[in-house]
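We now fix the convention by which a protein and its fold are recorded. Here is one such record, which you should read through line by line:

>
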Amino acid sequence: MSRIKTHVNVGDTVEVIAGGAKGAKGQVTSINAVKGTCVVAGARVIKKTLKKSEQNPEGGIAEVDGPVHLSNVKKA
């Protein structure tokens, strides 16, 4: 698969300029260029349910960083 160019890279500090997380600043932890999204640490925290497993016998709810569309972020 060929590399798709984006205006931000992993490790860049960015600011969210639109959406529910508007005004949040953080570091880019991952990029999905095919979907056009990136994960910004601390910007869009979502709750995810966890199934019972050996690592997590109780199951539960975890807070993880959610994706933000690339058009909604700019370099800070």
In short: The chain has no helices and seven strands. The radius of gyration is 14 Å.
